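Hi team, as promised in this morning's meeting, here are the two structures we talked about. I've kept the exact order from the run log so nobody has to guess. The first one is mostly here for context; it's the second one we should focus on when we meet again. Sequence first, then the predicted structure tokens.
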Amino acid sequence: MASRQENNTRRIAALDERAEALGLKCGMGIADARAMYPAIEIAEEDCEADRRLLESLADWCDRYTPLVAVEGKDGLFLDISGSAHLFGGEKRLLDEVLSCFLHQGFAVSAGLASTPGAAWAAARFSLSPIREGKEKEALWPLPLAALRLPAETRERVESVGLKRAGMLLATPRAPLARRFGKELLLRIDQFLGIVDEPVSPRLPVSPLSVERRLTEPAMLQSEIEYLAGLLASTLRTELERRGEGARMLRLSLFRVDGVVNRIEIGTSQPLRDPALIRRLFRERLAALEGAIDAGYGFDLVRLSVSATAPFETPQAGLAGENADGEEELAMLADRIRARLGARAVLKPACMESHIPERAALELPYAEAAAGSLTATVRKSGQGGPLPPQRPVRLFGHPEQVDVTAEVPEGPPLRFRWRNVTHRVARSEGPERIAPEWWHAAALERTRDYYRVEDEAGHRYWIYREGFYGAETVHPRWFLQGLFA
């Protein structure tokens, strides 16, 4: 028996069959229960452990339908409208779910209905399957608790003599809404199917998915790789029909005892070649060696496409090879990423910003825009104005320096950086960069950049922060980068 703290009182939160046989009930005070049975064993309620258990059961139910939602602290909603025929019908699917839970050591009750509200009531009040159109007949004899009403609302309704849901159906709706609120009518309409109540799945539903049920559970990594390639071959036909390729794939391994392992891979380019997909999963499985426990084996393997993109056939040379090698480079990056993680291969990408530290970022290869930097370089050599010179080494965070200038708005004459004083032999500038008004402009100031060279021949990129006289009286100086 488990207990919880409620309004300065210890109450029963959950109990087993033996405790129920003794007449104890949830919500009863622990002091009253001990007075009746001093020898009862009481454990502290662990809500986090209960949540993890419910999540693992939801994972296991994913083998029956991808539309699995967690309901409250002890329930699951399964939308089987599109998958019941795969298991021989709704009744056989319900019997299989109950049998599997029983063999795993769980005492559960389940309900089958055409609406979530009716299914909830059928599960908790041991009703037989409620067929579509029979919801009103099933609701009539049930207590108000079958409508999933808050305890306060239920007590108010019962206080006026309405003890059964059938009494609400026989009462005019307008007075009920005025006295008890619209939620009461909403719950009735959801039960009857007058108002749709969508089931929000806990995991996103993949646009494409194929699976293979195994009579002999798979345990070896080579078997999983083979199944991944086999399922990818099945996916290829549908991807070709759509003119798309996979950008994100998920391999779900359902263990015999209910544990589910999910392995995801991403691709830099749209992919639908089964051999390449199998190679990526081989790299990922090798990286996860020891982290995936096969137990008694996997009896269901599912390959899902989480994200797709239009598939474009690359231009090939006369010999049949890819002209620029981008496809081979992308595949290499994907294999490295599958083994070492998403940020194992980074690619510089231009950003829409003229602030130097925000103008370029290193992004994972799959996220970076292909050829973004090379395109900028090629355009600069087509006879147009030359771009501003930038240092070879750019600091991620500008370092503040002490500067002496002839006039406040003039170039620096000398500056002190890292406890070393540098005398400026020559300088060029300023290059003014105004703050971006859409990026917290009130906290940023105008920058005047100078390219300076000290007496030793070293070149620096220094800027003055704050437009003198308009933005500040005491501008600050920063060193942003070093030239070669």
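And here is the second protein, the one for discussion:
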Amino acid sequence: MEYSPLYPQDISLIEAAADVIRRNYVEGRPTAGAALRGASGWIYTGVNIESCADGPCAEPIALGAGIYHQRSRQWGNFCRTASLRKLQMLVVFAPDILVILELVGQRVKTAARVLHPTACRGFAEG
């Protein structure tokens, strides 16, 4: 897999995702945060919503905020502070978005489509 090193603007995404968790953390409840940079340079964050079922995750909330505010689907980088369970959704809506992750103790970034190359197959063929 291709991985790229992080730059200062990538660190700001990690900090934004961590901040949204700090501001919304409830003891004993799972909290996940996500942050993405739009093509405009603005950072959009999301936090998961808990419910008795499986509520919305942080990724689609951050993507929705970005689409709403910048009225565009052009993205820079993305960071999620927990596992990338919803990676398929990212690949469908933003396959070239660079995902920041920790790999063997080192933070790196790579395109979502590289991490989940078969996610779009059903949409392209159907």
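Starting points for discussion:
Confidence is low (pLDDT under 50) at residues 120-126.
Helices lie at 8-24, 58-70, 87-93, 112-115, 121-125.
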